[in-house]
Write a structure and sequence with these properties.
Number of strands: 15
Strand order of the largest sheet: 6-9-10-11-12-13
Order of helices and strands: HEEEHEEHEEEEEHHEEEEE
Largest sheet: 6 strands, mixed
Length: about 240
């Protein structure tokens, strides 16, 4: 058992001067621009969690992530380094309500479109992992669509998504708009990358046009439908862009 896991299980803590009786402080660390940043969140038990300061393979990342408590947030692997996708409650990159509301509306719209298409398309919410070339990038999109047989019930990974979605948040917007754009289209199966901006609201839809090119559509009219070919989805945006 690792030192981190032992700390999680022990529940031991040192009372901070500002701590209310019966409460402890849970401390987290995250890496921003190659700098470790610490922040604290009030919790009922203490766990010292520090992101690994070394390159990791996907298998090592997966083993490490499985030891993290749910309250710690969600993590991704990018160029062999662990990064924070969503922090714990009280952190600077916790999800806002407009984030999860737009994500839910987009996934519902994709579900409805996939149902119209039949059993050929499957929609998955945040959770499945997508491994990007050359293999040292493992991400969890806010949603995805894949075709063909359903993945194994015990699988963590969707190997060949056709559509991936990300909802912008202040802490991840730059990464989603730049590095992930390049990273997602490095995976040949991905035909569309949908970026949802809840602040406007608006969709930025990047679609593959050739081996090395893609087109971009800016969609802000809730009365407009979004055509995604392949796999042949027509997505209603009435609820997605309701604002």
């Amino acid at each position: 058992m690792t030192d981190t896991r032992a700390a999680i299980n022990s529940g031991q803590a040192t009372r901070a001067p500002f701590e209310k009786p019966g409460r402890t402080i849970r401390r987290y660390s995250k890496i921003v621009a190659d700098t470790t940043v610490d922040y604290r969140v009030s919790m009922t038990e203490l766990a010292e969690i520090t992101l690994p300061d070394r390159d990791m393979t996907f298998e090592e990342f997966l083993a490490w992530a499985e030891t993290m408590p749910k309250e710690a947030g969600r993590f991704e692997l990018w160029d062999g380094r662990v990064v924070v996708k969503k922090g714990p409650a009280g952190s600077m990159n916790v999800e806002r309500s407009q984030h999860w509301e737009m994500r839910g509306a987009l996934l519902n719209a994709l579900h409805a479109a996939a149902k119209d298409l039949g059993a050929e398309a499957h929609v998955a919410p945040q959770g499945p992992i997508v491994i990007l070339p050359p293999g040292d990038r493992a991400v969890e999109p806010d949603g995805l669509v894949y075709t063909g047989p359903t993945v194994d019930r015990n699988s963590y990974v969707v190997p060949e998504p056709v559509i991936v979605c990300e909802v912008l948040s202040p802490s991840t917007a730059k990464h989603d708009m730049s590095a992930k754009l390049e990273g997602y289209f490095a995976l040949p199966s991905i035909q569309h990358y949908i970026i949802a901006d809840p602040d406007r609201p608006m969709l930025i839809v990047h679609s593959r046009a050739g081996d090395a090119t893609f087109t971009t559509r800016l969609v802000s009219d809730p009365g407009q439908s979004l055509r995604l070919d392949p796999p042949g989805l027509t997505v209603s945006l009435v609820e997605v862009l309701a604002g």
